[in-house]
Design goal:
21% strand; single chain; alpha/beta; 502 residues; seven-stranded mixed sheet; globular; 22 strands
């Protein structure tokens, strides 16, 4: 059984910040929603209300889009030299790092993210995203074309326009920065809808962006629910593109709304059910801890979580034993405690959803190896849960649970595991654990997934594009691909006369 701590001693030295911003951010100002309505955001550690946040609606989206449209069509941001956008984005990155403790604490309170991880990595990686794309802002170039007849041709890369960003609740900072930074570098303006479960840090980032010099109207943040704010963004006739990260079900709705409105461009990063494949030539002592983290990181609330663990039969029993040993060191508790590995699920609804899947796994005949129960304390805490004897057609092996639930399955051959790993509607990521280069090459080219990590997991980098195959969506975040999706290609041709060269 995994350990548990209450974190009272460790968190006593952490200053819990006061929530400063709870209103909508439109055209450079914090404003109440037009209706005056608010909604509560809940601390998943204590189930207590953190604060009341303005509840936006369609009319508020209209106001935000109007500001973004004006800023794009007539404002300075798309017309600034890339080097000037770069300076402002670098200033924003500095401001993020200057406020790292407050931002990390807000995401811990609002999302249950580990404070130590946020302070050491998550917030600074968000700042680095702004620096990365700031470096690209003055390097957005088209091409000169060698035409086949008497024409001089070239291409221009132009910002796509007003972008609607709809971001998820699992990593509020990183998702905000991953969407906003490349769109800013491209010269776009935008309306951001943070998840209703975790709205607070996006409002801080909007405030910091204004301090850094981002002009009014370029970044607008409308808090509220998906059924109202998200739907209004997806169907808005003056939004040119929607970039969404979240569930496949919601991705369907966004595509439908985009198609039936103005055929706006859509980029979707959706669900996953990623295979973590362990061949029998590996060092089990190294791979078992990696498998545990691949599944349980951020309470299992990560779209690329390696929740389907395929283990080759020759090391199956040894792997299970080593995994259980490692689990003894895994600590569940208050995410402000630096010794904790796993905090609470983000909301009561998500907590209940995960518990439903655990009960379903038992009913379908999987063996509950360990865990499967809530912690006896306030907050949305669930024990790390491992099932064995899982069949490929069981619901827990097919659905994205988005919680600390691992399914372990045995396999014999490489050909078998490739077929079974691909037997899913998703295709977001995969992990391949082997010391055989031929096995690594064959399997990595055979898995239908957007990211494949060999002998590592969560191999994200600012340079490496990330996105899905199949029903995990399309389009890429990160890397230069993540910038180009916010740019349109325009071809320009002029006639040439009496030139010695075509």
């Amino acid at each position: 059984m995994s350990g548990e701590r209450n974190g009272d001693v460790e968190k006593s030295t952490i200053m819990i910040p006061q929530v400063k911003f709870t209103k909508l951010f439109i055209n450079g100002e914090f404003v109440d929603s037009i209706s005056g309505k608010t909604f509560e955001t809940i601390d998943p550690r204590s189930e207590e209300v953190i604060g009341k946040v303005a509840e936006g609606d369609k009319e508020d989206v209209d106001s935000a889009v109007k500001a973004a449209r004006e800023a794009f069509d007539h404002g300075s941001w798309p017309r600034l030299p890339g080097s000037e956008r770069q300076k402002i984005m670098l200033k924003l990155a500095d401001l993020i790092e200057e406020n790292v403790e407050e931002l990390a604490a807000i995401d811990t309170m609002d999302a249950g993210n580990l404070y130590s991880l946020g302070k050491m990595m998550s917030i600074s990686s968000g700042a680095q995203l702004f620096r990365y794309y700031a470096g690209a802002a003055d390097k957005i170039h088209g091409e000169t074309l060698k035409m086949s007849r008497e024409l001089h041709g070239y291409t221009l890369l132009e910002p796509v326009g007003v972008v609607g960003h709809i971001i998820p609740w699992n990593f509020p900072t990183q998702m905000f920065c991953m969407k906003v930074a490349p769109a800013l570098a491209a010269g776009c303006t935008m309306v951001v809808k943070p998840a209703e479960q975790t709205p607070l840090s996006a409002l801080i980032y909007a405030h910091l962006a204004k301090l850094a010099g981002v002009p009014d109207g370029v970044i607008n943040v409308v808090t509220g629910y998906g059924a109202t704010v998200g739907a209004a963004i997806s169907s808005h006739m003056d939004i040119d593109m929607v970039s969404f990260t979240g569930s496949t079900v919601t991705g369907h709705r966004i595509m439908e709304a985009a198609a039936t409105s103005n055929l706006k461009q859509v980029c979707l990063e959706l669900g996953g059910k990623s295979p973590f494949i362990v061949f029998d030539d590996v060092d089990v002592d190294k791979i078992a801890p990696l498998a545990l983290n691949a599944c349980l990181f951020n309470q299992g609330q990560i779209c690329v979580a390696g929740t389907r663990v395929f283990v080759q039969e020759g090391i199956y029993d040894k792997f299970i034993g080593r995994l259980l040993e490692e689990l003894k060191t895994w600590v569940v508790g208050d995410p402000f405690d630096p010794h904790v590995n796993q905090g609470p699920q983000v909301t009561k609804k998500q907590y209940e959803r995960v518990m439903w899947y655990i009960e379903l796994g038992k009913k379908e005949g999987a063996t509950l190896l360990t865990g499967g129960k809530p912690l006896d304390r306030k907050g949305y805490y669930i024990e790390p849960t491992i099932f064995t004897d899982v069949k490929d057609d069981m619901t827990i092996a097919k659905d994205e649970i988005f919680g600390p639930v691992m399914s372990i399955m045995k396999f014999k051959s490489m050909e078998e595991v490739i077929m079974r790993a691909n037997n899913t509607k998703y295709g977001l990521a995969a992990g391949i654990m082997t010391n055989n280069i031929n096995t690594a090459n064959t399997v990595s080219r055979s898995i239908r997934a957007g990211s494949v990590w060999i002998n590592c997991y969560f191999g994200f980098d600012n340079d490496a594009p990330a996105g899905g195959y199949k029903m995990s969506g399309f389009g890429k975040d990160l890397g230069i691909n993540g910038l180009h999706k916010y740019l349109q290609v325009k071809s320009v041709a002029t006639p040439i006369y009496n030139s010695p060269w075509l």
